[in-house]
Each structure stands twice: as C-alpha cells, then as structure tokens.
C-alpha cells in the first residue's frame, strides 16, 4: 500500500497565517510540509493538513 501525498495548503489560508512570534508572513515548504518563518528562524509543522502554529512545536532553522 502506497502513502497518499499530502494535499497542498489552501492559498487562502496561507495568505492569512503569520508567524505567531514575529507576525511576519510565512513561506510554505510543500516538500517538508512546514510553514517557514525566515524572520524567526522557525519552521512550523503541518500535521494531517493542519498547521501547528505553536512556537514550542516549531523546528529551528
């Protein structure tokens, strides 16, 4: 059984989400399934299609 690729993030949602630390826009990394805040140096995971916007859950870049 093959894994189903994740659905792309809704562009409408991406336009509205900002980094909770810096309030700056985020970049969607489809391959890593993360929302990246260059300003904060953090990458927020997307789990089961849901962005996890908690700084303590983010990966440091």
TrEMBL record:
It holds the Pfam family Trm112p. It comes from the Bacteria. One of its GO terms (cellular component) is cytosol. Belongs to the UPF0434 family. This is UPF0434 protein AVM11_03160. It comes from Sphingomonas melonis TY.
